[in-house]
Structures are given as structure tokens and as C-alpha cells.
Amino acid sequence: MISKNLEKAINEQINKELYSEYLYMAMAAYLDANDLDGFAHFFKMQGDEERFHAMKLYNFLDERGGRIILKAIEKPDHEFDSVIDIFEKAYKHEQYVTKLINNLMDLAIKENDHATKSMLDWFVDEQVEEEASMEHLLNKLKMIGGKGNGMLMLDKELGTRTFTPEEE
Ligand code: MG
User: Fold this and answer.
1) Least CB-packed of 21, 36, 43, 99 within 10 Å?
2) How far, in Å, from the CA of 125 to the mean position of ligand 1?
3) Would you state the pLDDT for residue 1?
4) Where are the alpha helices (H) located in the chain, listed in sequence order?
5) Residue 138 sits in which domain range?
6) Which CATH number is 95's domain given?
7) Residue 164: is its pLDDT beyond 80?
């Protein structure tokens, strides 16, 4: 059985992961509206990944005898200045999520909840990848100045992204 404190904090994180899905969908919608379907596809896949994160926490909480309580999902921004602006915001958002995961881990350590710590280890590693992939693409975009042929090449490359959730 999980503590009430951790139950509350994991429910909070489920909401943040679902907000992440929403945010990346809003970014995809902006990119689709600007005919950058490869970039849009990248964010749709990223959104799928966020939903998977939410469900990973959902399943864990249920298995530990916690109660899943879904709250309202915050409305994401729909207006962006440019593709570079989107990646700057996505990178910043992932840094924020890393902080949330670290806070959750601090709580699990404080409560000496080994099962939650073990589950969160996966998220700690995942956040290293999430930040790295957003930063990498942001730097590439800056190299090409966010326009021209480089953009078309990157759009084509990102259109091939796939997402296969691992077996539980
Ligand atoms: Mg996530």
C-alpha cells in the first residue's frame, strides 16, 4: 500500500504528463498549420510518449493500491513565434519535468518507499534522454537559422520518428 503523500504526488505527476501530451499536440497543430508535417509528426510521437509516461504512473499507482484521481488539464499555448521558439519551449518544459521527477524521487526517498524509487529510476533515466533530444534538435535548428533547405531536410528526417512502447 502506498502512502497518501505519494499517492497525491503521483496523481499530480500523471496530470503533468498528460499536460505534456497536450502541449506537444498543440505544438504539432501549429507545425501542421505551417506545412511542416515532419516536425508535426515528431511532436505527435512525443505526445504519444507522454501519454505512455502517464499510463506508466497510472498502472503503478493502481498496483500499489492507490486511487487514481484525474484533474483538469491546463490549456496549452497555441501560438508560437517560430520552430526555434517551439524547441526552446519544449526543452525548457522537459527541464521542468526533470525537476518534478526529482522532487517525486526526493519524497520516495524520504518515505523510504523502495518500490516507488525503483519505478522512478526509469523516469530519471528517461528525462536525461528527453532533455538531450530536445536540446540536440534546438541546436541543429539554430545552426540552420530555422529556415531554408536545412529546415526541409530536418522536416523530412523528423517525419520518420517512430514510437514503440516497451513491454511492461
Ligand atoms: Mg514525460
Assistant:
1) 99
2) 11
3) 87
4) 4-33, 37-63, 83-110, 114-143, 149-158
5) 4-158
6) 1.20.1260.10
7) yes
